[in-house]
Amino acid sequence: MNGQARLLAVVVGLTVVTLAASGSGQLAAIGATLDPAPRPPVLSQPTPSAAQATPGPATRTPDRTPTPKPPAKPRGGSTTEPSSTPPTTDGPAPGRPRNLPGTPNGLPPASPDPLASPGPSTSPDPSTPYGPLPELAATCPPADAQIHWDGPATAPRTVALTFDDGPSVYTRQLLPVLRAEGIHATFFVVGKQVVRDPKAVAATAAAGHLVGNHSWDHVYPSALRDGWTPRYLADQLRRTDAAIVAATGHPTCYFRTPGGFRPPSVLAVAPQFREQVSLWTVDTRDWKIQGLKDIKPSPAAAADMADKIYANAITGIGSPHPVVLMHDAGGYRGATLQALPRIIAAYRAAGYTFVRLDGLT
Q1: CB 131 within 8 A of CB 108
Q2: What is the pLDDT of residues 128-140, one digit of tens each?
């Protein structure tokens, strides 16, 4: 090294030592200024792909979307997995969970919705109770496993007037007629109709008439693949009972099957709900005479219908305890209304006492 180079090195060294005491920032600045070594050129690099980049933890994203795992199947059976057994009703889809832990025999608990359709029963045995009794049903007397045709023998001659398929607009027109005559009757209501017009059912009960169960949707056994199974009937009775209690505050202790059908399942299930199965001995055929459509006929045609209904109704005169079947819904029922005062007059003239099916007048 020549003299000039040595002198320059000495000067630089003394400068660095002197500036070290005045701050590292100034030292870095002077050192950067006096650094004789050239910096390597910055070369342009290709931008890495998203797959090659290694971002920091705060902005890291997965390099692929993970495949989601299917949910694990709960142990001990699922409470929401659909049953492998096809439903046997055409009503609302089952809405209650099934096989819940802690419930007796795996039967469904009472639903908070009184109109909800229960799921299939886990027991096909018709002698097994289908859950708890409907609300207030325990106040009904125990029902026997028999079909009751005649009316109650609370007097030497009694007659029970009964009306099926309501409520409807005709129900509201029947009530004033019965009130004017001073008699009480029995109304077998359809559950679906009850929830559509609960006030009509409430008015019926408030007027002193007996309200009975006539199924939820009035479907005949032939319309169902398996007919009226015990499970199906239990569902029909329970939902209709709940609708009647909601409308009237009273239970129903009587059941009349749609169409009067009586497969073995009827007497297997109805007594479990403390409901006596009550049919009739006198069919006025008013449903057939007037048809199933609510079309008002001409006055002359309506009068002719009323005459036919009256003639059929009084065929019970002579029997000790007839039960007369009429309808207050399901089509035009004006002719039934027109015939009713004459029917009442005929039985009254023959010495009959008008009673409800429970024997009360």
Answers
A1: yes
A2: 356 777 778 888 8
Per-residue model confidence as pLDDT tens digits over 273-308:
999 999 999 999 999 999 999 999 999 999 999 999
Question: Which alpha helices (DSSP H) does 130-248 contain, by range?
Answer: 169-181, 191-196, 198-206, 230-248
Give CA–CA dist 275/147, Å, rounded: 11
Report pTM: 0.66
Task: Answer for the pair 118, 94: CB distance below 8 angstroms, yes or no.
Answer: yes
- Between CA 265 and CA 356, with CA 134 as vertex, the angle to 5 degrees is 80
- Those residues whose C-beta lies under 8 Å from the C-beta of residue 315, and which sit 6 or more positions away, are 282
Burial class of residue 151 in the structure, from the number of CB atoms within 10 Å of its CB (0-12 exposed, 13-18 middle, 19+ buried)? buried
Q: d(Cα 110, Cα 132) in Å, to the nearest integer?
A: 7
Q: d(Cα 227, Cα 166) in Å, to the nearest integer?
A: 23
Q: Report whether 232 contacts 88 (CB < 8 A).
A: yes
Confidence label for 330 from pLDDT (cuts 50, 70 and 90): very high
Q: What is the pLDDT of residues 92-122, one digit of tens each?
A: 333 332 222 333 333 333 333 333 333 333 3
**How many C-beta atoms lie closer than 10 Å to residue 139's C-beta?**
11
